[in-house]
Amino acid sequence: MKAVVCEQFGPPSALQLRDLPALQPAPGEVVVAVKAAGINYPDTLIIEDRYQFKPTLPFSPGGEFAGVVEELGAEVQGVRQGQAVIGFVGWGAFAQQICVQPAALFPMPAGLPFEVAGSLLMTYGTAYHALRDRADLAAGETVLVLGAAGGVGIACIELAKAMGARVIAAASSPQKLAACRAHGADETIDYEREDLRERLKAITGGRGVDVVCDVVGGRFSEPALRSTAWRGRLLVLGFAGGEIPRIALNLPLLKGCAIVGVFWGDYLQRERAHVVADIEALAELYTQGRLRPLISQRFSLEETPAALEAVRQRQAIGKGVVVP
Questions:
Q1: What digits encode the pLDDT tens for the residues 15-61?
Q2: Which of 179, 185, 34 lies closest to 117, judged by CA?
Q3: Which whole-number Å values give the CA distances from 168 to 174, 200, 206, 226, 312, in the listed order?
Q4: What is the three-state SS of the chain?
Q5: Closest to 106 (Cα-Cα) out of 268, 250, 315, 220
Q6: Mean pLDDT throughout 272-300?
Q7: How many Å is the maximal CA-CA distance in the chain?
Q8: Is the C-alpha dihedral spanning 261, 151, 207, 175 positive or negative?
Q9: What is the tens place of the pLDDT at every residue in 192-205?
Q10: Up-side HSE of residue 18: CA atoms within 13 Å toward CB?
């Protein structure tokens, strides 16, 4: 089978496409034929040894996938051969096959194409957990999404709209903001050309926003926090801007607001039953036509390094998928 392999830590250009032996499951393992694997920002970090999880070299990147169960190892229960599944593994999915523990798999809901299912967990799963669980978003509230044209950003826009919120999308180019409007954003801010705080004051009439979805970090986190309304919530989703901000803690005190961490990967491990319910809720919203995941491009295994480089350079819009 073919796989994209990281043999030494470095940029996407260092990745190699290799022919490897077909996988055989050990007792308690499952081999899945990968039909689609989502491309995410953490994939660019893990190959440079800059992520919180540290795989042993060599390894295949790719943290989420959808596929079909091919073989079961001894003593495996709860999974059947031929079953369509969604998986979250941290790494290993940019390959034609992957060998995992059954705990990494979830039944793939009917009605989801493989490309959507294979790119759902880390974007829409994160956004749903953030908005529904961590922010307790209510209809009528106003949500600011930073880095709004990325995979998580588009998911936050669509889910906030589905929950009845007003959405302000902030991104770095007119092209990206057009994609945000196409996916439901009510207002947009080009934060490379406009003053974020002044535009938020104008849009909200000086009231501020109720929830901030911050996947960027860096220089935008503090002005976003300063722009929250009373009892606002800033959701810490990631640091795609490359810098972890340092926030003065007098700000949440004076504004009566909250800084809330969103770590979906640990949520999956600790609260699996809730994750299953989240996947079912997302599948229902998709079949109702209320979610339209932006699968911006489809890549072969050979094209994976270029796809990761586009994400690394923050050029990608929406979500790309690798189709082995």
A1: 999 999 999 999 999 999 999 999 988 899 999 998 888 899 999 99
A2: 34
A3: 14, 9, 14, 16, 24
A4: CEEEEECCCCCHHHCEEEECCCCCCCCCCEEEEEEEEECCHHHHHHCCCCCCCCCCCCECCCCEEEEEEEEECCCCCCCCCCCEEEEECCCCCCECEEEECHHHEEECCCCCCHHHHCCCHHHHHHHHHHHHHHCCCCCCCEEEEECCCEHHHHHHHHHHHHCCCEEEEEECCHHHHHHHHHCCCCEEEECCCCCHHHHHHHHHCCCCEEEEEECCCHHHHHHHHHCEEEEEEEEECCCCCCCCCCCCCHHHHHHCCEEEECCHHHHHHHCHHHHHHHHHHHHHHHHCCCCCCCEEEEECHHHHHHHHHHHHCCCCCEEEEECC
A5: 268
A6: 90
A7: 63
A8: positive
A9: 999 999 999 999 99
A10: 15
Q: What is the pTM of this model?
A: 0.89
Taken in order 176, 179, 180, 186, the sign of the CA dihedral is positive
Structure tokens at 78: 């709860």
- How many residues comprise the chain? 324
Give, in order, the Cα–Cα distances in Å from 91 to each of 71, 88, 191, 202: 20, 8, 33, 43
Residue that is written with structure tokens 């796809």 in the block: 307
- CB neighbour list of residue 67: distance below 8 Å, 6 or more residues apart: 32, 33, 34, 35, 36, 84, 85, 87, 98, 114, 118
- Cβ pair 179, 150 in contact under 8 A: no
Inter-residue contact 27 to 74 (CB < 8 Å): yes
